[in-house]
């Protein structure tokens, strides 16, 4: 079969990276999460689409909630534990979860299994989005100029 031609593409042809803009000591904790930035690869600017691979023992992020960004996650392979304010639940392939902006519903995904988990994650890029992290001294704000989140302590002081 011939390789797809843009705008079609094979998501596994997109470079996988575990880079993060999180400051230390938080960055090291997230090194077991890998992203293929599919939306960026396709030239999308209004929302992001990532194929996220979480190694056993890894997490998607620290538990967090967005002020203006909606998030949607579909479990493609493996099994993850969704942790929210309401507790923990196991999600298997085909399960989805949605996190409307501004609800304060803090969440993250843990891979407590023995094989990699694969998630398709979608989030918008709404200007002025802020991210709160209830369990760690971290605050994030979306930087429109760079298209990345910048981070400070909760009191606004730099790392």
Structure description:
Helix content is 5%, strand content 40%. It is mostly beta strands. It has one domain (22-135, 142-152): Jelly Rolls, CATH 2.60.120. The chain contains 2 helices and 13 strands, in the order E-H-E-H-E-E-E-E-E-E-E-E-E-E-E. It has helices at residues 26-29, 38-41; strands spanning 16-17, 33-37, 47-54, 65-66, 71-77, 80-84, 87-91, 96-99, 107-110, 117-124, 130-132, 139-143, 148-152. The strands form 3 sheets. Strands 1-2-3-10-5-8 form a 6-stranded antiparallel beta sheet. The protein has a 4-stranded antiparallel beta sheet with strand order 4-11-12-13, with no helix packed on it.
Itemize the secondary structure elements and their pairings.
Blueprint: E1 16-17, H1 26-29, E2 33-37, H2 38-41, E3 47-54, E4 65-66, E5 71-77, E6 80-84, E7 87-91, E8 96-99, E9 107-110, E10 117-124, E11 130-132, E12 139-143, E13 148-152
Antiparallel strand pairs: 1-2, 2-3, 3-10, 4-11, 5-8, 5-10, 6-7, 6-9, 11-12, 12-13
Descriptive tags:
mainly beta; four-stranded antiparallel beta sheet; Jelly Rolls; 159 residues; globular; six-stranded antiparallel beta sheet
């Amino acid at each position: 079969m011939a390789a797809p031609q843009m705008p079609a593409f094979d998501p596994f042809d997109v470079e996988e990276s575990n880079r993060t803009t999180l400051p230390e000591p938080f960055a090291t904790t997230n090194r077991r999460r890998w992203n293929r930035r599919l939306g960026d690869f396709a030239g999308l600017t209004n929302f992001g689409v990532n194929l996220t691979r979480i190694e056993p023992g890894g997490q998607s992020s620290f538990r967090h909630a967005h002020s203006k960004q909606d998030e949607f996650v579909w479990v493609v392979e493996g099994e993850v534990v969704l942790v929210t304010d309401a507790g923990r639940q196991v999600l298997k392939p085909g399960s989805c979860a949605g996190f409307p902006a501004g609800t304060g519903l803090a969440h993250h995904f843990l891979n407590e299994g023995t094989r990699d988990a694969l998630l398709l994650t979608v989030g918008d890029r709404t200007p002025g989005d802020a991210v709160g992290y209830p369990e760690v001294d971290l605050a994030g704000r979306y930087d429109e100029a760079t298209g990345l989140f910048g981070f400070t302590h909760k009191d606004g002081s730099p790392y």
